[in-house]
């Protein structure tokens, strides 16, 4: 068994076959946590989870790039961000659903700031305010916090700001995970020191910089999770295809190779870690 702790089957890429994709994953022994990025996709994640008796869950939250409006055009996707203010009451209501296991993905993204540098300070402040509100909700609702951390290229600026906020908000006493972390090993250690988990995805199968290998090797086994971040970041050997939760096994296989463990050991350990973090029920 494996748990894809961070998927987006609630996104438009799966609008024609979301249920079938999730059924395929479950049939292959993969549970799925679908993660929202604003109120609409959060509601869709909850609705999808409700269609299954077990094995499909939801995390709800506001992604930092949706705290302001801009057009993003990257290698794997092109979209217009939604300018949304975090509605504590609306998300709190969603969090009451028993299928909701986390709050997020939330955090800071300095990699994709608007081209107009004069608004950077304001945008960063909007991101920080939304992040702090979601930390408060995670604590009040007793849900895991799913953290998005993307720094300016070549720096750890967003990660260090996130670390400061987590400490200020007492998150060393609450459950949280760094999703798709690609920062430095030195800063990862600081997150681990305050109790954080770290989740690895397909990037570890195709990274050429050597950084992901360093991160995997330094991360303690009892703090490691696996994810797909589908439909993005498809792992080798399925590069070029739409990513989906069942592909998480390729990431787990590569993780096992880098850590010097068997696939079965990584499957068991990462699943136990995910249950501890998100409080998933036992199958």
TrEMBL record:
Name used for this protein in its record: Hydrolase TatD
Residues forming coiled coils: none
Positions bound to a divalent metal cation 2: 148, 179
Gene3D superfamilies (UniProt xref): Metal-dependent hydrolases (3.20.20.140)
Record organism: Candidatus Doudnabacteria bacterium CG10_big_fil_rev_8_21_14_0_10_42_18
Signal peptide annotation: none
Alphabetical list of InterPro entries matching this protein: DNase_TatD-rel_CS (IPR018228), Metal_Hydrolase (IPR032466), TatD-like (IPR001130), TatD/YcfH-like (IPR015991)
Chain residues that bind a divalent metal cation 1: 6, 8, 105, 229
Any GO molecular function: hydrolase activity, acting on ester bonds
Keyword set, alphabetical order: Hydrolase, Metal-binding
PANTHER family membership: D-AMINOACYL-TRNA DEACYLASE (PTHR46124)
CDD domains: TatD_DNAse
């Amino acid at each position: 068994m494996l748990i894809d702790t961070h998927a987006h089957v609630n996104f438009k890429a799966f609008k024609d076959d979301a249920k079938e994709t999730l059924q395929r994953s479950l049939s292959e022994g993969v549970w799925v946590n679908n993660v929202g990025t604003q109120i609409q996709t959060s509601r869709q994640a909850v609705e999808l989870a409700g269609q299954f008796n077990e094995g499909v869950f939801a995390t709800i939250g506001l992604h930092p790039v949706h705290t302001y409006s801009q057009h993003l055009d990257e290698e794997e996707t092109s979209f217009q961000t939604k300018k949304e203010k975090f509605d504590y009451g609306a998300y709190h209501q969603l969090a009451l659903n028993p299928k909701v296991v986390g709050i997020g993905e939330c955090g800071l993204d300095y990699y994709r700031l608007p081209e107009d540098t004069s608004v950077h300070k304001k945008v960063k402040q909007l991101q920080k305010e939304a992040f702090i509100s979601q930390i408060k909700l995670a604590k009040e609702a007793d849900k895991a916090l799913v953290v998005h951390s993307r720094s300016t290229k070549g720096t750890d600026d967003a990660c260090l700001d996130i670390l400061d906020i987590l400490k200020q908000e007492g998150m060393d006493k609450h459950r949280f995970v760094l999703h798709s972390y690609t920062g430095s090993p030195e800063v990862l250690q600081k997150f681990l020191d305050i109790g954080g988990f770290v989740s690895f995805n397909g990037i570890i199968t195709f990274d050429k910089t050597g950084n992901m290998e360093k991160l995997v090797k330094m991360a303690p086994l009892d703090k490691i999770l696996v994810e797909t971040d589908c439909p993005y970041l498809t792992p080798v050997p399925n590069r070029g295809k739409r990513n989906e939760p069942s592909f998480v096994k390729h990431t787990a296989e590569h993780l096992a190779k880098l850590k010097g463990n068997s696939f079965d050991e990584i499957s068991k350990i990462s699943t136990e870690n995910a249950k501890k973090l998100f409080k998933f029920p036992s199958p």
